[in-house]
Amino acid sequence: MHETAVAESILRTIIEQAKQVKAKPTSAVISCGQFNALNDEVMGFAFETAAAGTVCEGMTLEIKHIPLRATCKKCHTTFEFDVYKPACSQCDSEAFDFEPDAPLLLETIEFED
Amino acid sequence: MKVSLNQKILSRNEECAQKNKAFFKDNNILCLNVISSPGSGKTTTIARTIRDLNSQVKIGVIEGDIKTDTDAQKIRAAGAEAVQIETQGACHLSAEQVYNALKTLEAEKMDVVIIENVGNLVCPSAFDLGETLRVILLSVPEGDDKPVKYPGTFAEADVVLINKIDLMDYIDFNLERVLADIHVVNPNAPIFQVSATTGEGMEQWYDWLLSKSEAARAAR
């Protein structure tokens, strides 16, 4: 959806971190929720393009997709929300509240030793 | 060597959004971020709102478009101050652009600031502008499948306007399906059926807007 802006933002942070630890970054893990999802292919391409010519060139990027959870108003079960079957996994009730969607996070960066 | 950060990726935008939010709160301003597809009637809706509510609240508008200031001109013709942001290709507004536009607009003199985001049902929803409330507009000719296709956008709405209801008789549009689909991802947002062209249904939207503006003024 907005992979280019995300790529530029991650890149800025990784370059700052690389300067601090004085090492070349090799890989990074980012995570996203369901409403603010990222497309793996588009994200990979956007990052690769943005990283070209920087210390991050050649890095690998792993994207973790965190499921969206909801809590049933009837039986209070917390379940993984499925847009194709928007109902409680236990009692099939369609009355539920969403738990907060996972934010876009830069979780970890791996550097050469 | 592994470094754990767990840092929000769009944190620069969020920091600036917090500054905007504080500005609106300190000045008792209601700020609405209006998001929709291109051509769903954002500008027409905002212009009519200004014409009809001008005597009750002072509205200022920030217009986001990729190119041109035609929307800002329409808003000025309706009787409100407007600042145009030309994003030069970017598909959404960022908090920083809004921060700068608020100064140009002299927003502290306003009761209500309406931000008309770039026409796009996807990207703008990921960028918090610091708005008080988010308005999602869906127009009848776009089709009744939009809420299921763009669940994230509708999930974050504080109010949904279904616009161009005067065209309902000419278009295959299942209103019940739309209401049900919005309810799945967003059970709390009020949904108003309006036509910004004929004025039908606009009263409920005005009542909502005025009550939220009143709440912003009464805060603190």
Reconstruct the topology from this structure:
The complex is a heterodimer of chains A (113) and B (220).
Chain A lengths: L2 H19 L3 E8 L7 H12 L8 E6 L3 E4 L5 E3 L15 E3 L6 E7 L2
Parallel strand pairs in A: 1-2
Antiparallel strand pairs in A: 1-6, 3-4, 3-5
Helix pairs in contact in A: 1-2
Chain B lengths: L1 E7 L2 H16 L3 E6 L6 H12 L5 E7 L4 H9 L2 E6 L8 H11 L6 E5 L16 E7 L6 H4 L1 H5 L3 E5 L11 H11 L5 E3 L8 H17 L2
Helix pairs in contact in B: 1-4, 2-3
What does this structure look like?
The complex is a heterodimer of chains A (113) and B (220). Chain A has 113 residues and is an alpha+beta fold. Helices cover 27% and strands 27% of the residues of chain A. In chain A, the strands form 2 sheets. In chain A, strands 2-1-6 form a 3-stranded mixed sheet, covered by helices on one side. In chain A, α2 links the parallel β1 (25-32) and β2 (60-65). Chain B has 220 residues and is an alpha/beta fold. Chain B has a single domain (11-214), classed as P-loop containing nucleotide triphosphate hydrolases (Rossmann fold), CATH 3.40.50. Chain B is built from 8 helices and 8 strands. Chain B has a 7-stranded parallel sheet with strand order 4-3-5-2-6-7-8, sandwiched between helices. In chain B, β3, α3 and β4 form a beta-alpha-beta unit. In chain B, α1 runs parallel beside α4 and α2 (42-53) packs parallel to α3 (70-78). Chain B is globular, with a radius of gyration of 17 Å. At the A-B interface, α1 and β6 of A face β1 and α6 of B. β6 of chain A pairs antiparallel with β1 of chain B.
CATH architecture of one domain in chain A: 2-Layer Sandwich
Helix run count of chain B:
8
**Class derived from helix and strand content of chain B:** alpha/beta
Number of helices of chain A: 2
Alpha carbon gap, first and last residue of chain A:
34 Å
Oligomeric form of this entry?
Answer: heterodimer
Q: What would CATH call the homologous superfamily of chain B?
A: P-loop containing nucleotide triphosphate hydrolases
CATH topology of chain B: Rossmann fold
Largest sheet of chain A: 3 strands, mixed
What is the averaged pLDDT score of chain B? 96
Q: Please state the second-level CATH architecture of chain B.
A: 3-Layer(aba) Sandwich
The counted number of beta strands of chain A is 6
Major sheet size, sense and barrel closure of chain B: 7 strands, parallel
Q: How much helix, percentage-wise, in residues of chain A?
A: 25-40%
Question: Which strand order spans the largest sheet of chain A, edge to edge or round the barrel?
Answer: 2-1-6
Radius of gyration of chain B: 17 Å
> Which pair of protein chains has the largest interface, and what are the residue counts?
A-B, 33 and 27 residues
Number of domains of chain B: 1
CATH third-level topology of one domain in chain A? hypothetical protein PF0899 fold
